[in-house]
Amino acid sequence: MSKQIFDYDKLSSKIPYKYAIPIAVAKRAEALKEYAKPYVVSSDNNPVSIAFRELLDGYVIINDVDTLRILLPNGE
Length: 76
Known about the structure:
By secondary structure, the chain is an all-alpha fold.
């Protein structure tokens, strides 16, 4: 079994909010586990891996990005 490698730096350049990425992945993984159908195929069928890949590939987006601006330090 091979491990998937995700480019967290690439994802953090798309989403500059440190805590938004794990929260979005966790919420999507929960949805995948309960009722949602995945947009991508994963070799291990792990909901967290699938959710991370969907966020990285742009299939899942964070809707309220403006609310997340309060997470940035002043001056950014």
